[in-house]
Write a structure and sequence with these properties.
Length: 230
């Protein structure tokens, strides 16, 4: 099997279509039709990736994602029927790794899933082979344990926040534009816009800066992008 994917969707027709296409591609597809069932299946089956609709009975996709992020680091792709930026931004802020707006191309969905799983596999392989720790002042990134701490306290990071922080820490002092960060950290041509980078930068600052409103560590270089300073 290419991987275990949990599909959470209350539209039965779309659920069946996704399950059929995933299984045809070699994935093990599991399903849930409401938020409570999604949490139960995710906890029991430990999927490699979750496709999560926002509008769900019992618990919304947002609520499910918030809870999952406290318990596991599984990649999450959110589906939204609303073509509104606020929904996409909220999804990213609570820990989703990507989003797609309905209706969507099945071919594009499968391509994104493949890219997300490849990145997860690469990260796992890197963690298995690397035991290095990068220290930048009181900020410490442990690549072997795939975690980071600041001022002696472990940081509660989403997978994408960790990836972004680890990339910038590895390239300390270098400036990267939003487009470069999308390419280097997200790893493919992002279908949304560069606002996702700003969202993750803002949330990282909340966790590593003494005063997030006046960042001194994760700084903006006007007209150029972002960099991580020592």
């Amino acid at each position: 099997m290419a991987g275990k994917i949990l599909v959470v969707e209350d539209d039965r027709n779309l659920l069946d279509t996704l399950k059929y296409n995933l299984r045809r591609e070699g994935y093990e597809a599991m399903t849930a039709t409401d938020g409570a069932e999604a949490l139960d299946v995710a906890r029991r089956q430990k999927p490699d990736l979750i496709i999560l609709d926002i509008m769900l009975p019992k618990l919304s996709g947002f609520e499910v994602c918030r809870i999952l992020r406290k318990e596991m680091t599984v990649p999450v792709l959110m589906l939204t029927a609303k073509d509104q930026e606020v929904d996409k931004i909220v999804g990213l802020e609570i820990g989703a790794d990507d989003y797609m707006t309905k209706p969507f191309s099945m071919r594009e969905l499968l391509a994104r899933l493949g890219a997300m799983l490849r990145r997860a596999d690469m990260a796992a392989a890197q963690l298995a082979s690397e035991r290095k720790v990068v220290k930048i002042g009181d900020l410490e990134i442990d690549f072997g344990r795939h975690q980071a701490s600041c001022r002696g306290s472990r940081l509660d990071l989403t997978p994408k926040e960790y990836d972004l922080l680890a990339f910038l820490a590895t390239n300390k002092g270098l400036v990267f534009s939003r487009d470069q960060l999308l390419d280097k950290v997200w790893g493919y041509e992002y279908a949304g816009n560069t606002r996702t980078v700003d969202v993750h930068i803002r949330w990282l600052r909340q966790k590593i800066e003494s005063d997030p409103a006046k960042p001194t560590r994760l700084v903006t270089v006007r007209g150029a992008g972002y960099k991580l300073e020592g």
